[in-house]
Amino acid sequence: MGKKFRWTEIEIRVLKTLYKEFTIKELMQVFPQRTEESINSQIKRLKDQGIIDGGRNPETIERAMKERDLKIKKE
Question: Which pLDDT band, with edges at 50, 70 and 90, does 66 fall under?
Fold first, then answer.
């Protein structure tokens, strides 16, 4: 298990701004030091705190589904 680093205020602002438009895979490129699990956990935390509201845009959901399909086919 790697060392955990707290999310900075700048990272949280960027995540809040990009959340609706970016898939998790795309967010991993924006935050290369963060794992998929870390990003998902932070999104959940921010939703629970009311900092992020609502879901992703339909286009983002469609891209995420395509990414999952590609991942499943590779396995």
Answer: confident
- Whether this prediction's pTM lies above 0.85 is answered by no
Helices 9-18 and 36-48 cross at an angle (nearest 10°) of: 80
In this structure, what token pair is assigned to residue 59?
């286009």
Residue 8 structure tokens? 């900075």
User: Using CA atoms, how far apart are residues 52 and 75, in angstroms rounded to an integer?
Assistant: 32
Residue type, 17: T
Task: For residues 73 and 3, give the distance between their C-alpha atoms in angstroms, rounded to a whole number.
Answer: 31
Specify burial of residue 50 (Cβ count, 10 A radius: 0-12, 13-18, 19+): exposed
